[in-house]
Write a structure and sequence with these properties.
Blueprint: E1 6-8, E2 11-15, H1 22-39, E3 47-53, H2 59-72, E4 75-82, H3 85-94, E5 99-103, E6 112-119, H4 127-139, E7 153-155, H5 159-168, H6 173-177, E8 182-186, H7 192-202, E9 206-210, H8 230-238, E10 243-247, E11 254-257, H9 267-280, E12 284-288, H10 294-301, E13 305-309, H11 313-323, E14 327-330, E15 334-336, H12 346-360, H13 364-371, E16 375-382, H14 385-398, E17 403-405, E18 410-414, E19 417-423, E20 429-436, H15 439-455
Parallel strand pairs: 3-4, 3-5, 4-7, 8-9, 8-10, 12-13, 12-14
Antiparallel strand pairs: 1-2, 2-6, 5-6, 10-11, 14-15, 16-20, 17-18, 18-19, 19-20
The structure holds magnesium ion.
Length: 458
């Protein structure tokens, strides 16, 4: 069966040439522009949207197609070119745009592309707005304009410069620069290479960049997980580097390799960034329900606390804005610092981690062992909606003694770990995330879930 085009809160994703074509992208542009015009009716005479793309070969075509759609409904378009997702998030606010569009399929394989939407605050639309855009796309009641009111296209090449300036403002360039850190950067031939090399140069690092050509021909599977980063681990060892950084194709996720060439796991990216932030001040952090308890440990030690949200970057970002959080993000290597923008940003993660290393004089492996850690398992199994509901009901009985959070599926907190069960929004699967003090304890919780599943009549 052909895969379905996915339209979710964060936008549209599909396989280019199969279910994601230029004409679909144009109609999606029309739908987004129509939504923005309805939303901002009477507020502004002309609306503008900035648009950028990652390095995928289909990016230029889809960017042109979305641009056409926006112009058709009278929205001006500012073309940012080949830039990162956080770069677009920053420029939406910087340029006072009504929205932003990023043509990217993030960490998904090369045959995919996607259209990610941002509102004027730089974050993805909340569920009700996302639903309106989706409805408009299906109904095709677009607010088309006549020739004299067509949107105009201009270009802006300032994204990297503004992005770097904002990131440098949250760290001490001199302190990091004095260390002349040896860094290996793997940008998977995505959008991150160019801007990140510039940032690292500003921070006085000695950089070996691999896969830094923005060709969209990914040198390895693009998700920055251990199995995909063996060449980075090797390069850190042979170059005798102090740290290795890996970005996903749109550079909102960051994974780290320590000075021994060991992949430390994406959960540590946010933990290390938070360790630095909480060493300077205390306050609230925000993350989703599936992210490691390490963040709670770090916040608690500094007298702060962690707000937990439903999974999804927009939920975390909204909580951060509401509570003015000092740090936040997601366990999948996504760090958000509101001083830069309310969007996950690998450049922010890089800068904060280098600052932590510079100030403490410690290696990454030392910092990781100071944080300590847990055993974490992320798994999923097939479950239709009704089965997923039954599993959640049954789990509530099985784990009746645990502290329960039902913001997004069920998260059960125990003294020695936690378990998060949630049905995926985009596919018929149940995600099972467990974290515990050791593997045996985690396995006990996983086994309990598997038993519950077995007892559900299929
Ligand atoms: Mg991404």
């Amino acid at each position: 069966m052909a895969e379905q085009l996915i339209i979710s809160i964060s936008g549209m994703r599909g396989i280019v040439g199969e279910n994601l074509t230029a004409s679909i992208a144009t109609e999606y542009g029309c739908a987004f522009g129509t939504f923005l015009r309805k939303k901002d009716v009477g507020k502004k005479e002309r609306l503008s949207v900035c648009i950028g793309r990652d390095s995928r070969p289909s990016g230029q075509m889809l960017k042109s197609a979305v641009t056409e759609g926006l112009c058709k409904v009278g929205v001006d378009v500012i073309d940012l070119g080949l830039v990162t997702t956080p770069g677009v998030g920053i420029m939406v606010r910087e340029l006072g745009c009504s929205g932003g569009v990023v043509v990217t399929a993030s960490h998904n394989p090369a045959q995919y592309n996607g259209i990610k939407l941002l509102l004027d605050n730089g974050i993805a639309p909340p569920p009700d707005a996302a639903e309106q855009i989706k409805q408009c796309f299906y109904d095709k009641h677009f607010a088309l304009v006549d020739s004299s009111n067509c949107g105009q296209v201009t270009s802006n090449e300032q994204t990297d410069t503004i992005h770097i300036t904002k990131v440098l403002a949250i760290v001490d360039k001199e302190v990091i620069g004095a260390k002349k850190f040896k860094v290996v950067l793997d940008s998977v031939n995505g959008a991150g290479g160019r801007v990140t090399k510039k940032l690292l140069a500003e921070l006085g690092c000695v950089v070996s960049a691999i896969n830094d050509e923005p060709t969209g021909v990914f040198a390895h599977a693009p998700e920055p997980t251990a199995e995909n980063l063996t060449s980075l681990c090797e390069a850190v060892k042979t170059k005798r580097a102090e740290i290795g950084f890996a970005q996903d194709p749109d550079a909102d996720r960051l994974a780290i390799v320590d000075e021994t060439g060991t992949y430390i796991g994406e959960e540590y990216t946010l933990a290390l960034a938070a360790k630095y932030i909480f060493s300077k001040k205390t306050g609230e952090a925000a993350t989703n329900l599936s992210t490691s308890r390490m963040l709670d440990d770090i916040a608690e030690e500094a007298g702060g606390q962690v707000i937990r949200t439903a999974v999804g970057e927009a939920n975390v970002a909204a909580a951060m804005l509401e509570h003015n959080c000092i740090i936040g993000g997601e366990g999948s290597g996504g760090v958000i610092d509101l001083r830069v923008s309310p969007i996950r940003d690998s450049l922010v993660g890089i800068a904060l981690v280098l600052q932590l290393m510079a100030e403490t004089g410690k290696t990454i492996s030392e910092l990781v062992s100071e944080i300590g850690g847990y055993y974490m398992s992320k798994d999923k199994f097939a479950a239709e909606k009704s089965e997923a509901r039954q599993i959640l009901d049954s789990a509530k009985e099985t784990f009746a003694d645990a502290k329960l959070d039902t913001t997004d599926g069920c998260r059960f907190d125990f003294d020695d770990g936690w378990l998060h069960l949630r049905a995926s929004n985009t596919e018929p699967v149940m995600r099972v995330i467990v974290e515990a003090k050791d593997q045996r304890t985690a396995q006990r919780y996983i086994d309990a879930v598997l038993n519950i599943r077995k007892e559900i009549p299929g």
